[in-house]
Amino acid sequence: MNNSRMRFSGKHIMITGAARGIGFEIARHFGNEGGILSLVDNHRENLNDVVAQFRGMGFEVRDYCIDVSNRSAVEDAVAEAEKVQPLDVLINNAGIARETRFLDISEEEWRQIIDVNLTGMFLMSQAVCRHMVPRRRGVVVNMSSKNGLDGESGYAHYNASKGGVIMLTKTMALELASSGIRVNAVCPGYIETPLSKSIDSPEFTRAFVDRYIPMNRAGAVEDVAPAFLFLASDESRFITGQVIIIDGGQLAGQKPGEG
Fold first, then answer.
1. What is the number of other CB atoms lying within 10 angstroms of the CB of residue 191?
2. Can you give the three-state secondary structure of 115-141, one letter per residue?
3. What is the pTM of this model?
4. Which residues, 6+ apart, have CB-to-CB distance to 19 below 8 Å?
5. Of 123, 155, 186, 196, which has the fewest CB atoms closer than 10 Å, so is most exposed?
């Protein structure tokens, strides 16, 4: 464990979608800074692997294998976590994506994306914040996306869910500020994760970077996790209702051509 900076020593952090990708990296960062981890994911095998790895690193960690779009499962998991120690931070990271043209999206596929990405975040936030409000303290950081600000063809359901996350974040921030709770969102652009690497060829990634990203590389999970820790820490104590974009400059404007 890295003891050089322990902003979250003794703090209880609940992280959804924590068993792989960006969620795993966020959890690892919190653990390295002394956080007590409650990890939420719906993949039992992946969750077991992460818990074993983190305990081997000396982290205090518990796990909850649930579907975040199931209200009763969410409320039970939060209640169990609260018995361990009151939650200080909620990281809403769980999400799914699927590429389907707008006219071909079935109602079932639409509901699945919205249920996990937006309704799940609402249910998790409501369950946790009902405990935080009486204590008059707490932080929520939501995972949105560059696609919540600037859409992408083939992802109408995903874009809609991530745009909804941004407005949910802002409204939560407005309503919960008087209770001492801060709520912010992070919007990553193109980030290489185990999932993206299994879908996108190196040729696709290179072509995408060349066309869209001024910093001339894809993002890595290590580029995203520190923003969550900053927004969860006292360093951002006067920041709420905001969106941090991590996209290598993609949304700044059209990338200049060569020469």
1. 22
2. HHHHHHHHHHHHHHHHHHHHHCCEEEE
3. 0.95
4. 39, 41, 43, 46, 47, 49, 50
5. 196
> What pLDDT, in 10s, does the model give residues 183-236?
999 999 999 987 788 778 899 999 999 999 999 999 999 999 999 999 999 999
- Residue 224 to residues 21, 82, 111, 244: CA-CA distances in angstroms? 11, 27, 27, 10
The answer to whether residue 158 is catalytic is yes
pLDDT at residue 258, as a whole number: 59
The whole-number pLDDT of residue 4 equals: 53
State how far the alpha carbon of 54 is from the alpha carbons of 12, 140, 221, in Å.
15, 23, 17
DSSP codes, 165-176: HHHHHHHHHHHH
Half-sphere exposure of 117 (CA within 13 A, CB side): 27
The whole-number pLDDT of residue 174 equals 98
Relative orientation angle of helices 71-84 and 120-135, to the nearest 10 degrees = 40
The answer to whether 259 and 230 have CB atoms below 8 angstroms apart is no
- Give the active site residue among 64, 155, 158, 190: 158
